Amino acid sequence: MPYSAPRILIIPGLHDSGPAHWQSWLQGQYRDARRVTQRDPSKPELERWAERIQRTLEVAGDGEWLAVAHSFGCLALARHLADHPDSPIREALFVAPAEPDKFGLAEALPHHRLPCRSRLLASSNDPWMSAASAARWAHRWGASYSNLGAVGHINAEAGFGPLPVAKSWVEAARARHAEFREWAFAV
């Protein structure tokens, strides 16, 4: 059975991620990438957004995934992973999550380790979530944490078209999964 690298699942935040956003750039780097498209990306409805992630995965068919979420999309991804511990998402990258308290959603999110390996990237001056809050959520979810410094909300408006650290994360995650597959079949 030939190995197929995990595909990339892009999960944008509120108002989607336009063509100048780093998520659109990252999606363009991988022909097998899929984007979660919300029916109304201007309405932050956690349950609906999390369910849309599940539907996108079901329509895409079998296989493993690496999820890359931004802002409110991070909250939807965390909820999806809590609701679906058997999700085909093998690793998750949370970039500049939105503060759950701004939406009254802190209690609706998991307060425990998520079922897959994850990393959370934050900023020291993100208007949507403080670095201290980002570190707390990363700890709750069992995610490794990196503060990129005073770089705003890590979006197009903050100057992030390309985000090489996101592509590096994808490449490293794919390499980890290929190495695991090779090791598993070598036994």
TrEMBL record:
GO molecular function: hydrolase activity
Keyword Hydrolase: yes
Gene3D superfamilies: alpha/beta hydrolase
Keywords: Hydrolase
InterPro entries xref list: AB_hydrolase_fold, RBBP9/YdeN
Pfam families per UniProt: Ser_hydrolase (PF06821)
Domain of life where this protein originates: Bacteria
Protein name listed in UniProt: RBBP9/YdeN family alpha/beta hydrolase
UniProt organism field: Pelomonas candidula
